[in-house]
Design goal:
Layout (H helix, E strand, L loop, with lengths): L10 E2 L10 E5 L1 H4 L9 H11 L8 E4 L5 H11 L7 E5 L2 H5 L4 H18 L7 E4 L14 H22 L2 E3 L2 H4 L18 H18 L1
Helix pairs in contact: 2-8, 3-5, 5-6
Length: about 220
């Protein structure tokens, strides 16, 4: 979502020649890890934890930027044009659509485009793609006084994303409920008090790990 600090780099490429599965992570501030270290980004943690669990995965290629909406990510993919030879692809996008008051049916259309692109990047295999739900930034200090409305809107956007995932038989992983634990645990928030800390990113990975491992 739109942040209070400087945007992170648009992407992290992977020139790693070591053996392992190729992983592409698409998204926004949550995927690029606004206000956390590279090692604390959830895609980086996931690749490490999968490798430790016996599924060797290279460091992920990340295409994400703080503030991106679904349209921004679509535009970036037109410019970047990833290959279609990834072993696993993740997608987490939509918080900025909600934050900016964008139409939810617009989100459905653009999210579906991104989902189909993700499947294409995974050699056309929907079974190699997974989607994480949008975290609820309403639990941060910036959401104080408007938490119920933000949370309800986030739920509506996530409902759309899950419907589109079910339609394409793509795994949808709910991390929204986990994100809401930050309301009572400041250690789950990054220093900017708007994004999430490495501790939270690890919790998201803990939730996703068994489901993603089964895809590989």
């Amino acid at each position: 979502m739109c942040c209070k600090s400087n945007p992170a780099p648009a992407g992290q490429s992977n020139n790693d020649d070591t053996p392992g599965l190729k992983y592409l992570a698409l998204g926004d501030s949550y995927t690029i890890g606004e206000s956390v270290t590279i090692a604390e980004r959830w895609p980086v943690i996931l690749a490490k934890d999968l490798t430790n669990a016996g599924k060797s995965v290279k460091n992920p290629e990340i295409i994400a930027l703080t503030g991106w909406t679904t349209r921004d990510l679509l535009n970036a993919l037109e410019n970047h044009k990833p290959s279609n030879q990834y072993d696993v692809v993740s997608l987490l996008i939509g918080v900025n659509n909600q934050y900016r008051g964008r139409d939810i049916e617009e989100y459905r259309k653009e999210f579906r485009e991104l989902l189909l692109k993700s499947i294409g990047y995974a050699s056309g295999a929907a079974s190699k793609v997974f989607v994480l739900s949008i975290p609820d930034w309403g639990v941060t200090p910036y959401g104080a006084g408007n938490r119920e409305k933000i949370g309800a809107e986030i739920d509506n956007f996530n409902k759309v994303a899950k419907e589109e995932c079910d339609r394409e038989k793509v795994v949808f992983i709910n991390i929204t409920d986990i994100s809401r634990k930050a309301l009572n645990d400041p250690a789950m928030l990054a220093d900017d008090k708007l994004h999430y800390s490495g501790k939270m990113h690890q919790l998201w990975v803990n939730e996703a790990l068994p489901k993603v491992k089964s895809l590989l």
